[in-house]
């Protein structure tokens, strides 16, 4: 609820609806309507305003502490840190600060953007238009540094996101999910380090971990909003257009009650099924086993007791899926990077019949995307000096020094070094 409320406030800041030390009347009305619709509540404006004041107090307390000697911000833990003797001395003089010594503030960066330009006496020191947000792929502006030291507009770090960057980042996230490095709502520290190294190797060294984490939260919002829409009567998913669709009267009625949903009326979400794998806390039709590759399949007889339903990919399953894909390709049913809806329907039915399974279409689609990623990795490697394809072994080959040099520079998955790829 707090995360959602903060997102609503960020949206209103972007729209220029912050006046003085608070938001204008229409902004509060819009936020209240959207919040109550999201959580099925019946709160009045005073509830949100009270939370707004509480968050402002927390923000100011942390900001004051960061201004004291010996205190600093731990980005990985999202909390204030200081030596014990520093905390002891400060708490002795300010007992109310004790809770901040063990409390994390997952949304502090966003609170900087909401409260950062408000002075202690409640006046607004800069125009809300100075804070530039862009919800679209093509521009995500992050304020670097902490409030009170917020750079000017021209000094802000700007990351111009492109569809290619989103696709690569999502593939990195999927890979880390497959490795079991997602804990709760986020990834462990090593996973973020690995993803950042890979991302910067591909798109340049100027990106920081905060940039990726901000995009991770933004993609989570897109997914959550789309998922909420699909639960409403009259809304459905258009596989061809990769977007949420509904009749005009359905959209009009919903947007009237939920103004924030307007953006999704024409917004495409080409990675929606991948985002489901990343952000869902449980997997009924998916699991980490989706990411098993050729030669790494598990015997279904060895499943742990009480384990959830999982997709155990084996070489015969991959081989059969590849044959289905080839058949649909020959029929002319491939459109762009994927296949038409009817093709997926036919392949899913045939696959389930052969393996006596009950998989949904998205299971096959995600395996297809994984195989495509694997193919692109091999294709890129074959363009490098020293790499070649061994037809008899059906695998990539190179001298050990070539492999060692490449994996050191490119953070490349070591498994590919010994992997047999019979269907490449």
From TrEMBL:
<protein>
    <recommendedName>
        <fullName>Myb/SANT-like domain-containing protein</fullName>
    </recommendedName>
</protein>
<feature type="domain" description="Myb/SANT-like">
    <location>
        <begin position="1"/>
        <end position="90"/>
    </location>
</feature>
<dbReference type="Pfam" id="PF12776">
    <property type="entry name" value="Myb_DNA-bind_3"/>
</dbReference>
<feature type="domain" description="Myb/SANT-like">
    <location>
        <begin position="312"/>
        <end position="406"/>
    </location>
</feature>
<feature type="domain" description="Myb/SANT-like">
    <location>
        <begin position="161"/>
        <end position="254"/>
    </location>
</feature>
<dbReference type="InterPro" id="IPR024752">
    <property type="entry name" value="Myb/SANT-like_dom"/>
</dbReference>
């Amino acid at each position: 609820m707090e995360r959602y409320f903060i997102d609503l406030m960020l949206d209103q800041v972007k729209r220029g609806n912050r006046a003085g030390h608070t938001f204008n009347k229409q902004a509060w009305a819009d936020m209240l309507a959207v919040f109550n619709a999201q959580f099925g509540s019946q709160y009045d404006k005073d509830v949100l305003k009270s939370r707004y004041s509480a968050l402002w107090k927390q923000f100011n307390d942390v900001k004051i502490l960061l201004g004291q000697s010996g205190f600093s911000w731990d980005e990985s833990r999202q909390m204030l840190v200081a030596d014990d003797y520093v905390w002891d001395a400060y708490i002795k003089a300010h007992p109310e600060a004790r809770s901040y010594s063990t409390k994390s503030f997952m949304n502090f960066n966003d609170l900087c953007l909401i409260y950062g330009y408000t002075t202690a006496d409640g006046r607004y020191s800069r125009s809300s238009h100075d804070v530039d947000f862009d919800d679209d792929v093509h521009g995500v502006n992050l304020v670097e540094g902490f409030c009170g030291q917020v750079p000017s507009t021209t000094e802000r770090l700007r990351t111009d996101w492109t569809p290619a960057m989103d696709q690569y980042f999502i593939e990195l996230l999927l890979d880390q999910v497959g490795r079991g490095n997602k804990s709760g709502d986020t990834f462990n520290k090593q996973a973020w380090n690995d993803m950042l190294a890979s991302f910067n190797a591909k798109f340049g060294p100027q990106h920081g971990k905060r940039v990726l984490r901000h995009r991770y939260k933004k993609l989570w919002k897109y997914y959550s909003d789309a998922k909420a829409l699909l639960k409403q009567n009259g809304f459905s998913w258009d596989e061809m257009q990769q977007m949420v669709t509904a009749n005009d009267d359905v959209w009009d009625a919903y947007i009237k009650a939920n103004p924030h949903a307007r953006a999704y009326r024409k917004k495409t979400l080409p990675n929606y099924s991948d985002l489901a794998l990343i952000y869902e806390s449980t997997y009924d039709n998916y699991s980490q086993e989706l990411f098993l590759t050729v030669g790494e399949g598990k015997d279904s007889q060895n499943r742990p007791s009480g384990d959830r339903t999982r997709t155990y990919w084996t070489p015969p399953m991959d081989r059969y899926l590849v044959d289905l894909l080839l058949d649909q390709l020959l029929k002319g049913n491939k459109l762009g990077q994927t296949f038409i809806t009817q093709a997926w329907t036919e392949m899913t039915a045939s696959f389930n019949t052969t393996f006596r399974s009950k998989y949904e279409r998205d299971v096959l689609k995600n395996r297809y995307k994984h195989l495509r990623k694997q193919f692109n990795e091999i294709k890129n490697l074959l363009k490098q000096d020293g790499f070649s394809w061994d037809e008899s072994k059906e695998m990539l080959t190179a001298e050990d020094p070539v492999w060692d040099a490449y994996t050191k520079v490119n953070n490349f998955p070591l498994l590919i070094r010994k992997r047999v790829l019979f269907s490449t």
